[in-house]
Amino acid sequence: MLRYTINRVLLAIPTLLGVAILVFFMLRIVPGDIVEVKLRGDGGAVSQETIEMERQRLGLDKPLVIQFKDWMVGVATLELGNSMWTERPVMEEISLRLELSLQVAIMATIFAVLIAIPLGTMAALFRDTWIDYLMRIATIGGISIPAFWFGMLIMSGLLAGFNWLPPITFTPIYVDPIANLTQLIWPALAVGYRYCAVTARMIRSSLLEVLNEDYIRTARAKGVYERLVISRHALRNALLPAITVIGLEFTFLIGGLVVTEQVFNLNGIGMLFVQSVSRNDFTLIQGMVMLIAAFYVFVNLLVDLLYAVFDPRIRYD
Amino acid sequence: MSIVPSTLPAPMSEIRQPGAFEEFCRQQPLGAISFAIICAMMIAGIFCEWVAPYDPLAIDFASLLTAPSWDHWCGTDAFGRDICSRLIYGSRTALVIGFTSSFVGSSVGAVLGIASAYFGGRIDNWIQRVVDVLLAFPIIVLALVVVAAFDKLLLVGIDVNLILAIAIPIVPRVARVVRAAALSVRVMPYVDAARAAGYSHTRIIFRHMAPNVVAPYLIMLTAFVAQAILAEASLSFLGLGVQEPTAAWGLMLSGNAADFYRQAPWMILFPGVAISIAVFAFNLFGDSLRDYLDPRFKV
Amino acid sequence: METRRTVLRHVTGALALGMGGLNLATVQAQAQTPKRGGTLTFAISAETPHYDPHGSDTYATLHFAAPFYSTLLRFNLSKLPEVEGDLAQSWTAAPDLTSYTFKLHPSVKFHDGTPLTSADVKATYERLRNPPQGVVSTRKATFDDIGTIETPDPTTVVFKLKNLNASMLEHFASPWNVVYSVKDLAENPAGPRTKINGTGPFIFVEHVRGSHVSGKKNGSYFKQGLPYLDGWKGVFTLQAAAMLNAVQGGQVLGEFRGISPAERDRLVQAMGDKIRIEESSWTLNLLVCFNVEKKPFDDVRVRRALCMAIDRWGGSQGLSRISTLRAVGGLIRPGSPFATPESELVKLPGFSKDIRKSREEAKKLLADAGVPNLKFTLHNRNLAMPYTPAGIFLVDQWRQVGVEVEHKQFDTAPYLATMNAGNHDVAIDFSNLFMDDSSLGLAKYLSVTRAPENRSRSKDPELDRLYDDHLRERDVEKRKAMIRAFEKRLFEQAYQQPLLWWHRIVATHKVVMGWKMSPSHNLGQDLAEVWLNT
Predict the structure, then answer these.
(1) How far is C399 from chain B (nearest CA, A)?
(2) Is residue C157 part of a domain?
(3) pTM to 2 decimals?
């Protein structure tokens, strides 16, 4: 088990390195630099010398490999540098917005899981009946509707129907829970319903797979109550692949957050991403990508370990 | 039918041959319906010049923002362009992007997956690392760079960059699944026997491995067409996708369409519905196809 | 503070209610006295990267920072383009306009308590014209004519110019030239980017990045009785839809940059008489810009043909309904004192009202130049308002003369980069001015060696000469004639040409009083005279 863990942890390093190289060099293929946007974006008439001076000040004139080396050294010491746009530390910019996005993500996941488990289970148990068909239509509908369109409809609906809008600035939940929840429940819904649909489908299919297993047949033959068969044997084993999916689809959640925060005007990570991308703020984009990749790798590691704990066959791979 | 161990898919001879179309329709009525929707989309997309009542690019300042009527079934947008025609031409955009991205992404992913499974060892490790790196990347960064970086090439008014941007995230996901499917064949004794008998790599891959992979490949292909159409919609919404004045459903929802929600709600209603129906049809079809092709559920 | 403009608004309002036969006295009796107190919450559509207006070109910095600072002079928004004093109590100009003497208010204090003296003004202007290492002064070139700055006593500043500059007073009134403390600048020349210490009506409270900025009343503001508000809060709404929702939902009381006609209609429909709409022409325009270093745009016939193919007058009708584009005009904002009158304008290529004839001539010119079936890419910016409608419009217009155009939109960074590198064929460029003065308005069209913002990369010594001459010309009529000559030459050469000028529409809640509308969204943002009628 220990060897397996160490093995998995070591494998994370080349992945993160790959991400770092890819993001750094790919970003610099894009023409255009942030100094131009800052000084000439709204029609300013600065001389070329001024632009060059600013580029020098931000360290943009050094050869690419040197810039990469400097940045990698920083990453290793968790010093992600300064945003090229605001010149404040990248960590500071991110941590300002992290709480909001994290809360939306957690709320979306809770909502998804609470609904997906019973839904998916029912669909599997009543397979090929009208319940199953209804469920399948509902979940496929769930993954078919564009998240941003759904968000637009929610906002328009609130405005047209109730002439009410969620609060526009963020207050943490421990400061003012009502303001916080009334603001964040809508984006959580917009992001969560899709997550819910994916999870429900996953649970349905993995439960169906498990229900065909021999040991289920044995349990039934033994005379175990059906409910116990489902909850103690089937569901537990079915949940494991579902957890994998939740972990792997985490990047999809980030993608969902990006468009949803635009629609609801939330000051979160997704919004920061879009802004930094449109401003060519490389250090910020790099920092965010590394953090997301690290989180993704961490989540996958956790899931792999969980799997190994529950399924000993994996450990001896 | 022999009892199939649950950890391995059945070898080729046990799988129903796809192409038994009537069988499919009988067993999967939902699948048949979704297939009909897809056909309708394709007809609209291929024959849009004949089907669409107006030129989708024709600006008509005299009839801005008019409500749906007999003249304009879905109303007009902020430039007086007929929304119904733009929806029809948009289906061409959606299908081209959807099919091309999905096909390119799934095929590259399948090749990587098979190579990974077949050759194993070092090659497998390297490919796995590449797959991991790609999976860890948020799609939007990938999309921005690919769309902006390479010099633009047009294909029916759509950037090849955009197709690449959507295809690339598909590659690792397909690679993983195909690798698992191919691996299950790899460990079977007859592959080793074939090698021992001196059959070339290519022959073994194409005759033994590939057929086992066809089913998951087809299923993912259709599933990712749906994802690709959604991805295009999101990217256009963020301003990174198809450019004006090309008709595309996601583009019709972006920009200041939301401003008009009160005066012209049809502007955001119809394109959203179109996207949803198209993606829904492809997803349902993929689902039904999988249910039909995967024998484990037939026991 | 009653001004003519506020009174006029009351008059129009009263007339609209159907009360005829009013005279000014009755109206003035109805005019209200400002109420004190309250917090104004409004939307800011972009977030500034730093706090230093000297080094910024975006309104985002001004909407954020203007309430905290003061300038030497400022524009009198009721009597544009006249200027009035801000920090300067009075001023005199030498008869030959080579020196300006300002007398400052005696009891001005910075927010940290330091009294303001002439040394602060001098340090500010030295920074503006000669920024130290690491500091950017975006409008450095406009101060080239300043020779020396003298401070004979703590409340007097004397600027001695090297050359006569007829526009100098307007530059002193520029909203960007906020006055910093010499102490702060000595300590850290780049300090104003991250630290706010001004003499303005409001004191900086907090800035939560991505969310909002807020200020509170400056109790010792040097203008007695001001400000009326207790405080203000600027919320960043980065999407137009979000801003409109916030206005409609009552979370913000307005937005001071400008909205599009469709957005205005939506607010009016939803909020009825709770919303106040003010409209004016805008000091912004979009330009059609040809890259003269690329074939076939080095041929003046091709350029002129493409300009003539555009139906500005007709297009303005439709475009003004769906976008912020509206007025047809030349190089100076139509409606302002130096603008070319319509009778003259229609004689210039591209501005004729007989579009059929223009287009025929355009087709002939293209054929003469050997490119009857021209194909090129239109390079545009990725903003929905009004760049996208402008691009769609142009593609359609050029289709009418048989020219096939591919429309490509880019984010700001690659958009600027491509144009700077000269890699574009034809582009939609923009001109963002804060005042109507021709010294600013014409600068964009000078030879690219002098003006890096000339994206057509043209080099025309004739235009340069006309510009320099007009700068030194004091006689108003002669100046106008020079501007006309400049415009005529530019349009005949057609390196770049204004497409349409924008139209500014500002929506504020009825309770917001005292804010003054103007043709520039960079002016009038210090909020000193704003009060809430609740």
Answers:
(1) 11
(2) yes
(3) 0.83
